[in-house]
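#structure-requests
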Amino acid sequence: MTDSTVLGIFARMMLTTAEVSAPILLVSLAVGLVISLLQSVTQIQEVTLTFVPKLIGVALVILFAGHWMLDTLVSYTDQLFQTIPQLISS
């Protein structure tokens, strides 16, 4: 196993991680921004006002995109396990 192989596996892992976590992070960021603007305009400083909408948004993303996320992770793991014999033999 060479350095380039390890770096290739690491790069693929980081790309898969970013790809899977991006929908959750983007929805959480968007909801947080909207709630922060709403709090600034109305001067309501309630902590649960930011937490509950983010929780609902993340739950909806997992509900709608969870199957895709799981398929992406399973296919990456499957590809990784399929390359183990090639890595051992080289």
